[in-house]
Specification:
219 residues, alpha+beta, six-stranded mixed sheet, two-stranded antiparallel ribbon, 7 helices, 12 strands
Length: 219
């Protein structure tokens, strides 16, 4: 027995537990920081790589229940020029939040870059048309900003394995992207067709899409 009345073995185990607890806390904090680094700080959505990993996982497990949506803000530069960058950030944050709300806890949402977003949701096929209509209305609502409302337009393209004939994520994203640009500025979500999956890609993006590179020149 020690002077405190506790066995030496108990003191020894307690001493071992202290660094163990510290390591557990360190690991938890490190994991939190790594997770935060994978998220876009403005919108709270996943960055492209993290989104892709999670989207692959959902698609592999539930190929018959997924809807992939690509979203692109309409005339975003004009909005920035007219209302300022703070207003533009507010709109981007709203788009990310609305897509995340729509995708739900079983889905995943990512910011692919700039004003371009993607969401993959698990939805039973019979409910998909209604859910896409709901997304259309959700994205069209003006965004509160100070004491006013900011007008917002978001082009949407949707792709599913059933409508495109593929379960390949890059092909689905390319098809959704092509459908989105087919309906640009119309205010309607456009459903991808099988022929959209055959559109060539450059550097992982649909050929002809702004920002692609063809022989060293921007398309």
């Amino acid at each position: 027995m020690t002077m405190t009345g506790l066995p030496r073995k108990t003191l020894h185990l307690t001493a071992l537990a202290v660094p163990l607890a510290g390591w557990t806390l360190h690991t938890t904090v490190l994991h939190r920081h790594l997770t935060q680094a994978q998220r876009d700080p403005l919108t709270g959505t996943w960055r492209r790589e993290a989104f892709t990993v999670r989207a692959h996982r959902i698609l592999d497990r539930h190929p018959d229940e997924v809807v992939l949506v690509l979203a692109d803000a309409d005339r975003f530069k004009e909005l920035n020029d007219r209302y300022g960058h703070a207003a533009g950030d507010t709109v981007l944050a709203a788009i990310g939040h609305r897509l995340t709300e729509w995708a739900g806890t079983r889905g995943v949402t990512g910011r692919l870059g700039g004003d371009e977003f993607a969401a993959l949701a698990r939805i039973e096929p019979r409910h998909q048309p209604l859910r896409l209509e709901h997304l259309n209305r959700l994205m069209a609502a003006p965004v509160p900003y100070g004491n006013s409302l900011l007008p917002i337009g978001v082009s949407l393209g949707a792709a599913t394995p059933a409508t495109t004939g593929t379960r390949d994520l890059p092909a689905l994203m390319r098809a959704a992207d092509a459908a989105m640009y087919e309906g640009k500025h119309t205010g309607n979500v456009v459903q991808a067709r099988p022929d959209h999956t055959g559109i060539p890609a450059v550097n992982g993006r649909r050929l002809g899409r702004p920002g692609t590179s063809v022989r060293g020149r921007a398309a």
